[in-house]
Amino acid sequence: MSKSTADQSEPIHVEDADHLNDLLSEHAVVLVDYYADWCGPCKMLEPTVEEIASETDAAVLKVDIDALQELAQERGIRSVPTLEFYVNGEQAERLIGVQDKADLVEIIENLS
């Protein structure tokens, strides 16, 4: 069974700035998870982010700040995990640190 990009049930790994911009413009509500493989709190947050991808209508994007250092700098990411919420391509919210799943889902529902 093939999935369209509008029906993502798992996080999308961002490849570069253009890819991020394309994804932000393609989806109404987007959660961007800026993370690093060495980051303990990022690993704690990962199952939550994956559940949000499968359980909500939001597109969930993952940005590896080590692989995409320039992008992370352009976006002003200074610590991980950082979560950004976008609506119709515009940033609506930014949270830093491990977050409770219920709080994240509530933000997505309020933005939808």
In terms of topology, how is this protein built?
Layout: E1 12-13, H1 17-26, E2 29-35, H2 40-55, E3 59-64, H3 69-74, E4 82-87, E5 90-96, H4 101-111
Parallel strand pairs: 1-3, 2-3
Antiparallel strand pairs: 2-4, 4-5
Tell me about this structure.
Keywords: Disulfide bond, Electron transport, Redox-active center, Transport. The record marks 40-41 as: Contributes to redox potential value. InterPro entries: Thioredoxin, Thioredoxin-like_sf, Thioredoxin_CS, Thioredoxin_domain. With 112 residues, the chain is an alpha/beta fold. The chain has a single domain (13-99), classed as 3-Layer(aba) Sandwich (Glutaredoxin). Helix content is 38%, strand content 25%. The chain has four helices and five strands, in the order βαβαβαββα. The protein has helices at residues 17-26, 40-55, 69-74, 101-111, and strands spanning 12-13, 29-35, 59-64, 82-87, 90-96. Strands 1-3-2-4-5 form a five-stranded mixed sheet, with helices on both faces. β4 and β5 form a beta hairpin. The protein is globular, with a radius of gyration of 13 Å.
What descriptive keywords fit this protein?
Glutaredoxin; 112 residues; electron transport; alpha/beta; 5 strands; transport
Condensed summary:
The protein is an alpha/beta fold and 112 residues long.
DSSP strand count: 5
Main sheet record: 5 strands, mixed
Q: What CATH first level would be assigned? A: Alpha Beta
* Annotated CATH topology: Glutaredoxin
Shape: globular
Structural class call reads alpha/beta
| Strand order in the largest sheet | 1-3-2-4-5
In CATH, the homologous superfamily goes by the name Glutaredoxin
User: Order of helices and strands, N to C?
Assistant: EHEHEHEEH
Q: Estimate the strand proportion.
A: 25-35%
Question: What oligomeric state best describes the polypeptide chains here?
Answer: single chain
Mean pLDDT: 93
**Total domain modules:** 1
CATH architecture term: 3-Layer(aba) Sandwich
What is the helical fraction, as a range of percent? Answer: 25-40%
| Poorly predicted ranges | 1-6
Distance between the termini: 26 Å
InterPro entries: Thioredoxin, Thioredoxin-like_sf, Thioredoxin_CS, Thioredoxin_domain
Organism: Haloplanus litoreus
Protein name: Thioredoxin
Keywords: Disulfide bond, Electron transport, Redox-active center, Transport
